[in-house]
Design brief:
By secondary structure, the protein is mainly α. Helix 3 crosses helix 6, helix 4 packs across helix 6 and helix 8 runs antiparallel to helix 9. The termini are far apart.
């Protein structure tokens, strides 16, 4: 049976405390040939938290005491999570391929940072549950000096920027109405540099609107 079938069979039926489920997953990885361990780790990161289970097979055995979970979490938060965050940022910004990224993370989990299977199993969970996992190589993106950015902003002119603010403030019945109007503005720009700057302006405006809504909600509490 392939590692994918083994993992699919487990994930499609499992239930129980998350630490016990991931300890079992870690044991599955360990039981595989060395050549299959990294692919199995990647598969778990990609599928474990999105797979649907019928909960027919509960992991009843308690592999951790509460104290062991707390101690492992403290170590993971202190020594592993900062490394994980920085590696994700570094690899994503350098357009590192997924296999190379996961290989580095798997090596970290197998390193002397962790002294037990319990700690390593919880580290696998922390990887799988990270907001930026599954990892994706989405490219590097366009880099631009602030001076050039501002020059392009100035060149866009008041009309398109004022129109954009107006579109963002209006309430439309259909979600696609606002989006299509902004797309029209974007596609009317001739260069990719102009389009990238225009998108940056839109994203900044939306971020401010979201923050404003959050601040207002906090004030109402």
């Amino acid at each position: 049976m392939t590692y994918k079938k083994i993992l699919d069979e487990f994930l499609s039926t499992c239930s129980g405390k998350v630490q016990n489920v991931f300890f079992k997953l870690y044991l599955i990885i360990e039981s595989l040939d060395e050549s299959e361990q990294l692919p199995a780790f990647i598969y778990i990161c990609d599928k474990a938290l999105s797979s649907k289970s019928d909960y027919s097979k509960r992991v009843d055995k308690e592999y951790y005491t509460e104290e062991q979970v707390d101690l492992a979490d403290k170590k993971i938060n202190k020594k592993f999570v900062p490394l994980l965050d920085s590696l994700i940022e570094e690899c994503a910004k350098r357009a590192v391929e997924p296999i190379d990224f996961y290989s580095r993370i798997w090596s970290l989990i197998q390193s002397s940072i962790f002294r037990s299977k319990r700690e390593r199993a919880l580290a696998v969970f922390r990887v799988a549950s990270h907001d930026l996992i599954p990892y994706r190589n989405v490219g590097i993106g366009l880099s631009m000096e602030e001076e050039q950015f501002q020059k392009i902003v100035d060149s866009l002119g008041d009309t398109i920027l004022d129109d954009t603010q107006y579109i963002l403030k209006l309430n439309y019945e259909q979600k696609t109405q606002r989006a299509s109007l902004l797309v029209d503005k974007l596609l009317a720009l001739e260069s990719r540099d102009e389009q990238a700057v225009y998108m940056a302006i839109i994203m900044s405006a939306l971020k401010k609107n979201i923050k404003g809504e959050i601040d207002e909600a906090i004030e109402r509490i």
